[in-house]
C-alpha cells in the first residue's frame, strides 16, 4: 500500500520556545493533517513561521516575540517551508522523504509525472525517477544504493495526492484555531498567507491517466 503525506522538517525548531510545541520525532518529519495535537500544530507553526527569520532575530525573546515572528512571515513575498511530500510503501518499507531545497510549497509538482515531465524532488532523497507507460519507479538516494525502487502506478497518483491535499486542508483548519488563540489580530492574514503561498486551498487539477502511451 502506498501512502502520500505532506510533511515539514523540524530540524531547525528543536529548541523553539516562543509557544508550546511537541518534541520532534526521530526522523525530524512532522506529517500535516487535521488529526494533529495542539502541540504538533505549534511545532508546524514554528517551522512555517521560520521563513524570513535570521540567525540573530530576537536574541532575547519577550512576550511579543511570537507576534513579531508571525509579522515577519507576513512581510515576505512568498512563504516557503522545509518539507514536501512523504511517500511510503507499507509493503516494502520503502520511504521517499522530502529533499533539501524542494519545499512544502512545491508539493503539487508530483502531478508533473502525469504529463510525462521530469520530477525533481530536491537533494539527498531521490537518485532518479524512471517513468514508463503507466508506472513511475522512484529510486531512493541511499548509501549503499537501494536494491529496489518504490513503484508508483500513475493511475493511483491523483488519488494519493488528493489524500495529502485533504490532510493539508485539515491542518489549515487547525492552524486557524491555533492562530485565533496565539495571534488573534493576525489570524486572518496568517491563514490566507499559508493557504495561498503553500497552494493548499485550490482544488487539484484533473490529471487522470487517459490512453497511456
From TrEMBL:
<protein>
    <submittedName>
        <fullName>Uncharacterized protein</fullName>
    </submittedName>
</protein>
